[in-house]
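Lab meeting minutes (informal)
Scribe: AK
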Amino acid sequence: MINTNIYELFTKYVSDTKRGGTNQFLGRCPFPNHDDNKRSFSFNAEGLYNCKGCGEQGNPVKFAKAMGESPKPFYSDDYKRNNTLITYNGTKQTVSKRAMSDKTDINRHKKDLTPKLKEYEIKYPQDKGYQSFIMNHIGKDKDGAITIPYWENGKVIGIKHHKPKNDKQSWWEGEGSIKWYNSWNFDAYHKDQLIICEGEKDANRLVQLGYNATSTSGGALSVPPIPDKFKEPKELIVLYDKDKSGDKGALKMADEIFNELGIVPYIGNWRTSLHKGFDAYDDGTGEEVEYAINNKRLYKPKVKEGELTVMSLGTLLETDYKEPDIIVSNMLQQQAVTVFGGCSGTGKSWGALQMGMCIASGKSVFNYFEVKKPYKVLLCQFELTNGQMKERVITLKKSFDKDWKTIDQNFDYQIFSKKDAFTDRWHSLDTFLAKSNGRYKGGVIIVDNLYTSVDTETDTSNNAQLIPVVKMMGEICEKYEVSLILVTHHKKGTKAQLIDIDDCLGGATLTRYASNVIQMKQSKLSTDLRVMEITKVRGEQSDLIEIPFKLRFNPDDGTFEKGEIINNESVHYIESKDRWEIKLVKDMKNYESIRKTDEWSRADIWTFLSTQEDWEQTQSNETKVTRFINRSVAWGLVKKVGHNDYRIIATDLKDD
């Protein structure tokens, strides 16, 4: 027999509790100096406890004090008078005299206490809504405690004496282990719905209102073994009291149901205007219960680190998981990471700042990529000084003047400090968001950039070293329901190469985790021209995936604007000393207006070159023309349309 108050005290702090023997329970040690993952902590029916891991031991008075709870219920005069000392695990401990002599131990023969119901019988007023209480023989003892019988095989095996008026502890006659109320009615219940509530009075009220209902015998935080009968109803609804204990208990119950059966239950939601502590018993008409059930929400299982959690596909379809919203088309989705990569000096910080302003105002990014509405934005910038940031904001403000009020309301900037660079900023960001009271929930965090956001011991080019950082990004997105734009550099030696997702500093560890990857490089054709490519998109169809396009920079207002797609990306990375071919093709294109045709044979090319200086038709220049034709075709400037017959591609000549 276990005292309900003692069980509730221990299960409030001892996690993963399970029965370990006769009136004995095991769980994870709650003491702060012990990180227990082996259920090293045990306690018994009288509150005597011992931890094999850290050595903590004592009685319920000591435990209550250690946990910051009032020990008063455990050292009252009745407690002292009715308890004695025994040796437990080698230490003298206080034990109930009743427990020493009680013959109703759960492993002893279960007595039939049915005759006791007559002793506790009370006369309920007729037509006052107490039919279910009469049916279940709810009575009162001489101390004013409500007596609640528990049945098994047609006889009463235990009677719970609940809350005596003289402040004595609740206690049990007969078999008092934690169990399910109304379990003797499970076979008769219909299979549509079962409501799990906090107490027996609530369960009886719900039955009176026409619902299938059960509760535990031990209060909000106690969970008996989950019966297989819970698999039968089409839906399980946990409806606990409207208070903190009820909220915590409902989550614990839902978690146990999911872990034991793989079923995702619902949690009922009371109307917010109801008083603290409101429960099903308080609802005489059923109106509030109906509201709570109609506004139920599906429990979202929590996955513990290192553990595998599964559910059936049918259960998955019943969940309220939703596809993430797209914040910026092709570029950013809700609660996901976007990597914005580029070589040094390409203007990534300008681009990230412009993206932030567009997201905060609801304007299209780069005057093309749709943003459906304004979002909260936080920019964490670890490269530029505050003065440099101010100068850039002043420049960009010219293009956002009409939206400035909205941007000012939605866009926050983390003040730069030199001491912050090259330190672990991710845990600092986590701490800040934890204190922000959900200010950025549903919004966007921009971190500029990866290299300066980690400490000097973390090599961002080392996949293994970057794993904890990427894990932290995911935790921040999930915990605070935010999206993340991470600015990162390209690896050294990639400036003259075609854009590739593997160019990004952080490598596969970062880019495979990210939902979207966008990359940018400087074009050699113009100081104000960039090549941009979207190299990864998740969650939506994109017509631009791995299609390079032009991004034009306006130095007057600091903005980028999307241009047309690029047919031959390699042209943009050719050094100026090797670009005489491009100038020659442009001159030939201009000459077409005189020739009245856009087709060129090798002879036509020599006719044109004869008008240029230093182009005598020598053997050396014949070789040079061959090289010129081959390069122009390879770069996509010229297309071969037949034997020794070519056409200049006009679109790529606009790249300057």
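Next up, CB showed the second protein from the same session:
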Amino acid sequence: MKNNNNQDELLVTKYLLNNNNNVIRHPKGSNRTPDILVNGIVAIEVMRLSQHFIKGKYSQDLQELRAPIFNIMEEIVKTYDHLYNGKTYWIHIELNRPIRTDFRKIKREIKYALDELLKSNIVPLPNTINVTRQIKMELMDLSERPGRLFVFAGLGDHDAGGWLLPEYIKNINRCLSKKANIVSKYYSEFSEWWLYLIDYMRFGISKSSIIEIKNGISHITPFNHLYLLDYSGNEIILEI
């Protein structure tokens, strides 16, 4: 998570420098807010805007599972190459949260499910296996891929997507709430506070959608300004 924060702070820092600002990162130290100080007076907090699975008080960034499970699957399928017998199968994984981020356990469960499948009969295809209540694995026939028994075909995410505008409004409000709690202790130290969000949702927002998103954000207190910076760090998509 710290590496993600550093990456996002560097993106905002670059954007601010390109717009002729005097920028200092971590003016109060690396473990202390604000993330960035601009022109000696404006305190800036930075956060990644991404889709979250939210249930009650539980919240999980969708990417928190997707990237590690993708890597796990790429690793697992290679361990079966020595069993190649002239047939190759696609494997597709479907996620349905909440899922605990115990990746060692997840890896064992997926490996066990594949081992048990090989002991029985893979056909008929497509064949869907319930690895756990939250993880499903689908096998599909693939034209021969010499030397490969399994090829990872990708991840499906039950919790990804949704209506564009409600997802932006919900996740912007989540970021505001989280950062407001952090800033509250130090608010009096600076005359202005800005919040920069990096758009990792990347759904694409039209001009008419921007107005509707703004209407869905009731307030940005304690921040004076909120900026949504595009994923590449080149353009402000939304400003409140």
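CB comment: The longest strand covers residues 42-49.
No objections, moving on.
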